[in-house]
Amino acid sequence: MKQTTIYPSATVANMVCGFDVLGFALEEPCDKMTVRLLNEKTVRVVHHDSYGLPTQPEKNVAGVALQAVLNQVKENIGFEVEITKVIKPGSGIGSSAASAAGAVYGANILLGNIFSKTDLVRLAMFGEEVASGAQHADNIAPCIFGGVTLVRSLHPLDVVEVDFPELQVTVIHPQLEIKTSEARKLLKPEVPLGNAVKQWANVGALVAGLMKHDYELITRSLHDYVAEPVRSALIPRFDELKKHSLEAGALGGGISGSGPSVFMLSKNANTAHRVADAMRKVYNETGVDFHVHVTTINRKGVKEK
Amino acid sequence: MKQTTIYPSATVANMVCGFDVLGFALEEPCDKMTVRLLNEKTVRVVHHDSYGLPTQPEKNVAGVALQAVLNQVKENIGFEVEITKVIKPGSGIGSSAASAAGAVYGANILLGNIFSKTDLVRLAMFGEEVASGAQHADNIAPCIFGGVTLVRSLHPLDVVEVDFPELQVTVIHPQLEIKTSEARKLLKPEVPLGNAVKQWANVGALVAGLMKHDYELITRSLHDYVAEPVRSALIPRFDELKKHSLEAGALGGGISGSGPSVFMLSKNANTAHRVADAMRKVYNETGVDFHVHVTTINRKGVKEK
Question: In this predicted structure, what is the pLDDT of residue A14?
Fold first, then answer.
């Protein structure tokens, strides 16, 4: 039976100022997914993890994404996917995006790479919709393309790859549940013009800073006038996390997606580990369980190892 | 008497999606300014043009900018400036910014280049304030730095230079008066979040497109959800100008600053001239007097010829 095993990675959406637009892929953690080609028009989902995710294909993120692939092909084929989730659902580092992206990426390998990366993002968005209730691509795009991506437009889909210098990433995942839909409700439906101007000034400057490999400009651009001021209240000790991370040498950072994970960027691994220590110190006092990852930006996208 | 003659150029602020943030310098038109060092603490302004601009130093854009320079130096010196304005006041291509930027640039030459370009932008902003009632830098920054600039922040001032490919510019200046203050009143004080996201997606993508020299991405990013939808009503036949310019091969464009000038970017001079013809054809039917310039982006900033 034709099959492939692939490793879609966690991703960080928003990247502070780039709400709903910017995102990047992490080197770790990655899910493990084995996709098999079947000779009947069906989709089967098997989970080898203990998160209790639905396995009915029409309710499963990977299942819906695979069905979207099947809808594009004429042959009488189907897919089975075995998933071992390592990226914890609800952590805010693109767990559902990894399932959707990995599924379509694996299916595409089995089909002889008939779809472009942009096609794959479009197909995976159907899966993401099951998890979040809305089509968005700010986790899926970096998961599939790797690196830092900017989703200029969803309809039509327009993904821009943004060059960047070496960046280490420290992520703390407090074991709290924040529903994306609830985090979204906190956002005001309108942005005062002055704040909107500051936000797009920072988005433009962050893109320039990344492409110029100008760490100081990256640092100066990592400010969010839209989501962080309202959403950070959902994350215990957010301000302290940020303050101590910056003091430990982080370039900047903020809420990963809609939280609860918080990420910080650093120039090198030593600093990223110092930031991890600073984060642990803040959270050790809270009584909230947490995990800290130190990793880097994944330039490859979905890995085939 | 120590003196210098310099040529500050016209500039285009906003650059469609980059409201209050992006701008670029034009190769032509340029004002001519001669700045002289005086040995008394005073500022004198002489105009060799027929625009009836005030010559009292405290009411003149160049005069106020020169006073701001004097406030930074201890020596008992002063400046006289002779100005021949070529950039018509009120045209929307940075006429007052050129006066302010040219004055401080010339003064700095006479002082032995003691100020950085960012310092000069900061000083020139005092002059611009006289003309527009508010400090802004989206014309002054490109006038002084040349090329395409992004003003990430005004306080503290943070100007980012953005690399770009060859770009030709066609500008039509309909002989109408649009006051910046009135154009500003048309803007809504709040931006719906969905439009704000689209705007910063385009700002980020435009910066990436310019830096990657990706003309197609530049074209796709030149959309404005904030100013153009309300301000274009002040410019007769705006939609037709845009439509026929795009049909003639323009990459995109929009209102220059707060208008009434409209600019279009093209890949090469032939296209820029075709765009000029298309613009003339639209405006020949209106009865409104107009000028059309075909020029390019000025990479140098203020010229010393």
Answer: 97
Where in the sequence numbering do the catalytic residues of B fall? 128, 180
Confidence of residue B203 (pLDDT cuts 50, 70, 90): very high
Whether residue B191 sits in one domain with residue B47? no
Asked whether residue A303 is domain-assigned, the answer is: no
Do A21 and A140 belong together in one domain?
A: yes
Which residues in chain A are contacts of B134 at CB distance < 8 A? none
Statement to judge: residues A146 and A181 lie in one domain: no
Looking at the structure, do residues B31 and B131 belong to the same domain, yes or no? yes
> Tokens in use for A202?
């920072």
Within an 8 Å CB–CB cutoff, is residue A186 touching chain B?
no
- pLDDT 10s digits, B100-138: 999 999 999 999 999 999 999 999 999 988 887 778 899
**For residue A177, how many C-alpha atoms fall within 13 Å in the half-sphere facing its CB?**
3
Nearest residue, CB atoms, A207 vs list B20, B188, B208: B208
Query: How many angstroms separate the CA atoms of A121 and A142, rounded?
Result: 9
Q: At B234, is the pLDDT very low, low, confident or very high (cuts 50, 70, 90)?
A: very high
Nearest CA in chain B to A206: B204
- CB within 8 Å of B126: residues ≥ 6 apart: B64, B65, B67, B68, B100, B135
Distance from CA of B104 to the nearest CA of A (A): 25
Residue A244: give the domain boundaries. Answer: 168-296
- The SS3 of residue B296 is strand
Domain assignment of residue B187, yes or no = yes
Residues 136-165 of B with CB under 8 A from A: 150-153, 158, 160, 162
B267 in a domain, yes or no? yes
Q: A154 to chain B: nearest residue by CA?
A: B198
* Residues of A involved in catalysis: 128, 180
Q: What ipTM, to 2 d.p.?
A: 0.97
**Is residue B237 domain-resident?**
yes
Residues of A in contact with B199 (CB under 8 A): 196, 200
B302 confidence band (pLDDT: 50, 70, 90): very high
**Strand B3-6 vs strand B32-38: parallel, antiparallel, or unpaired?**
antiparallel
- Residue A109: CB atoms within 10 A of its CB come to 17
- Which CATH number does the domain housing residue A32 bear? 3.30.230.10
Confidence category of residue A305, pLDDT binned at 50, 70, 90:
confident
